[in-house]
Amino acid sequence: MKEEAQSRPYLGVTERRRQLLDAAVEVMVEEGAGALSLRSVAQRAGVAHRLVNYAFGSKAALVAALLDRESERLAARVWAEPLPAETLEVAVAAALGSFLAEVRSDPRRFERLAELTALARASDALVDAARAESAAYRLMIAERLELWCAQRGVRLASLQVVISAIHAAADGLAEWWLTTRDDAQVEEVIGVLAGGFGGVRVMQ
Fold this sequence. Notes:
The protein is an all-alpha fold. The chain has helices spanning 2-7, 13-31, 38-45, 49-56, 59-78, 88-105, 107-121, 127-152, 159-180, 186-195; strands spanning 155-156, 202-203. The chain has a two-stranded antiparallel sheet with strand order 1-2.
C-alpha cells in the first residue's frame, strides 16, 4: 500500500480537478447523471474519497464545475470561428449546423449532459449551476453576434431576443435529432429554423 501511494504521481489542484472531472464525465456517460457522486467519481478515478471532497467540497460544487466545463467545451467548439459575414439567416444556419455536428459526433455524451442539466434545474442546490451553464452559452453566442455585427457595420434591433432564439433553436434542434436520428432532413430542418431569422431587423 505504501509503495502504491509513493508510485502515484502528485497532481496540483488544477490537474487533480481536471482528472476528477474526466472521471465524472465517464461516470455520467456510462452510468447516467443520477449515478454522479463524490464517491463514484473517486472510485472511477482510483483515488481516495477525501481527495474528491477536498477538490470540490460537495456534489453540488462537482456538478457545477462539470456543467461549467462541458458547456464551455461545447460552446468553444461550436462558436470558435466567427459567423459567416453574410446575412443573419446564413450565419445562424452555419452556427446551427456546427452545433448539430458536435451533437452528432458524440450523442451519448450530449444526452447525458442534457440529463444532468435537467436534474440540476430541478434541484434547489444545483439550479444556480444550471443557470450559470445557460448564461455562459448565451455569452458565447452574444460575442459571436457582436463580432458579426461589427464585420457588417450593423446592429440588431433586438440582440437579446436573437440570442435567446438561437439558444432555443439549438436546444430544439438537438432534442429533435437525438429523438429521431433523422439525418435525411437535417439540412431542411436547419434551413427552416434559420429562415426565421431573416425577419430580424438589422440596422445600419
